[in-house]
Amino acid sequence: MIMLNFINGLPVLARLTAAATLLVAGVSMGTAQAAGDVDAGAEKSATCAACHGVDGISQIITYPILAGQYPSYLTHALESYRDGTRQNAIMAGFAGALSDQDIADLAAYFASLPGPLQTAPRD
Fold first, then answer.
1. 3-class secondary structure, 9
2. pLDDT, averaged in runs of 10, over the chain (123 residues)
3. What's the whole-model pTM score?
4. What gap in Å lies between CA 102 and CA 75, rounded to an integer?
5. In CATH, 38-112 is 3.60.21.10
């Protein structure tokens, strides 16, 4: 009720802008991805371990470390391999079979693992 009283007191253009903002926020919340499940991701990660290590820390320099990576980055990378916007024949084959929930679970799992990756300080 307070929000409506606030919006009703605004000029017409401001009311339209506020209404559009609330509409976009509502639509965005409705299309949010499902949260990943760390335990489910651990179960699904067996295939990943061959190249990326059991703990998400690859011992082979050409394969990236997944442990401790941002979940949003992992999600984006897997979705990009799956839809072909990121090219890698090996990863495309694995990611092509993943559902959105599989990707969310794997991202949550690898992000939860301790790893050697660090965020660069902002200067």
1. coil
2. 48 48 39 78 96 95 95 97 96 95 98 88 76
3. 0.70
4. 10
5. no
